[in-house]
Amino acid sequence: MKIYEDEKAIAELAVTPMAEGHIIVKHSAHPISLASVPEDDLVHLFYVASYAATAVFEALGGTGGTNIILHEGENTNSLSGEVELHVVPRRENDGLPFKWEPSQAQPAELEEVMSKIKDQTFFIGKEKEQPRVPHPEMKKMTETDDNYLIKQLRRLP
Questions:
Q1: Does the predicted TM-score (pTM) go above 0.90?
Q2: For residues 56 and 19, what is the distance between their CA atoms, to the nearest angstrom?
Q3: Is 65 left (phi over 0), alpha (psi -120 to 50) or beta?
């Protein structure tokens, strides 16, 4: 049952919900890989999921929190095989199996895992550099040009 749709996102009630108000947010192009979704579309999907969580909170009364879970890939229990964001409202003692027993990792093991992951994150927050092409009407200034700025630079000690 569709509850929201725009040009990039579809939000619908889960057919097999984990909890009352379980909503699935999908991209309208139905991609199967997160890597194939444009970055601005991913931002939009999380934006829709956030608003869906707020809508569930308002409509069904305050819940005990929300889990927003990303499903991508074969081993994620995704029924459709598509990239999906599951918005699952939580209540105290709801019995949902989202808790895990943490284990203590060894410092050397953590260091090795951190190194492997960190090597793959060097590009985060960096935009691709575009080659600089001079404007066709711009000419390169030389010291022989009778230019005020060049003259001022020559005056510097």
A1: no
A2: 11
A3: left
